[in-house]
Write a structure and sequence with these properties.
Strand order of the largest sheet: 11-13-12-14-15
Low-confidence stretches: 314-319
Distance between the termini: 91 Å
Bound molecules: zinc ion
Strand content: 15-25%
Mean pLDDT: 85
Oligomer: single chain
Helix content: 25-40%
Order of helices and strands: HHEEEEHHHHEEEEEEEEHEHEHEH
């Protein structure tokens, strides 16, 4: 029986708006719109971006190239172009015949699970590597005397951080069990960065790659009280956090970046069940209010209050 030949263009039109939710999942492919994720085809970490910009399931992978939804399915499943066309046609209701069996789908799902497991394993290894590097750098730092950054910001040095011989501040990032996973460097001019990871294929340093989620540094000491509530402030950066500590005497956990506030709040809540959390949001109201947005998200999880630090008052009170 001769089947009517279905045109790729017809299929693409019928498939519009259905790639992410309907079509890809049938081949065991998962995408997130406009978010960098591991590539479903080559497994490259953080190199894949699905944007569907022309409505044909468009994606871009730094490693295996760009294409549309039909290309992606071919790459992932190893099916030929006509086979993919046939399948997608049947999914969007253009043709009822399908050569794909549940066994195929089960295999693709298994393969996807395996890819995801390998990716998690790779990521964990990399994070462990960077954790060791952070510990070594912090332990062996040749100590300097002063930090222009601290002077400029008029804040103290917490005894648990270090100043290296370039005048950089070294601030460890710990998890709730006290394991150091990362290290923030603040250069004298205020430039901040975390541990630099490995070199890439071109021999350039890659920034990032270390664990950040839920990591914090605690300025001062928390005195947990089993019966009464006690205050723990949570702020983003060192200068802000230390200003708050100097003005109030309360311990201040640093989340380093705004979007880490909810994870840090969650980690601290497990550690200090009776603490009242005071989220000291950075005032980004002139920009996009990121600080407030994440402080609110954290507060919704852990309770507590949100304040916008008024630095003029803090400065006056310590003068
Ligand atoms: Zn790829």
């Amino acid at each position: 029986m001769a089947k009517k030949k279905i045109q790729a263009e017809d299929i693409k039109r019928a498939a519009e708006g259905k790639w992410a939710d309907l079509i890809f999942p049938r081949f065991g492919i998962e995408v997130q719109w406009k978010k960098k994720t591991p590539c479903p085809a080559c497994g490259g970490r953080d190199r894949f971006r699905y944007d569907d910009k022309n409505g044909v399931g468009d994606y871009f992978c730094q490693q295996c190239g760009a294409g549309d939804g039909l290309d992606l399915i071919q790459k992932v499943t190893g099916l030929s172009f006509p086979e993919v066309l046939e399948e997608v046609a049947s999914i969007v209701g253009l043709d009822a015949t399908s050569a794909i069996t549940d066994t195929d789908r089960a295999r693709w799902r298994k393969e996807r699970e395996l890819r995801e497991k390998e990716q998690r394993e790779r990521e964990r290894k990399r994070q462990e590597q960077i954790a060791r590097k952070a510990e070594g750098l912090f332990r062996n730092a040749y100590l300097g005397e002063t930090s222009l950054y601290l002077k400029e910001k008029q804040v103290n040095k917490d005894p648990k951080i270090k100043i290296d011989h370039h005048g950089n501040l070294l601030i460890p990032a710990y998890d709730e069990h006290g394991k150091m996973w990362n290290l923030q460097t603040i250069e004298p001019d205020g430039n901040k960065y975390f541990i630099k990871g490995d070199t890439n294929d071109l021999g350039e340093w890659q920034t990032g790659g270390g664990r950040m989620g839920g990591l914090f540094f605690m300025i001062g000491e928390v005195q947990p009280d089993l019966y009464d509530s006690h205050i723990v402030c949570i702020a983003e950066g060192y200068a802000t956090g230390m200003s708050i500590h100097m003005a109030t005497g309360h311990p201040v956990a640093l989340s380093f970046v705004a979007n880490n506030l909810p994870k840090v709040g969650t980690a601290l809540r497990q550690k200090y069940p009776n603490a009242v959390f005071v989220y000291c949001a950075d005032d980004d109201s002139a920009k996009d209010n990121t600080g407030m947005k994440y402080a609110q998200e954290a507060q919704a999880i852990t309770g507590g209050i949100i304040v916008l630090p008024d630095f003029t008052q803090i400065k006056e009170s310590i003068a």
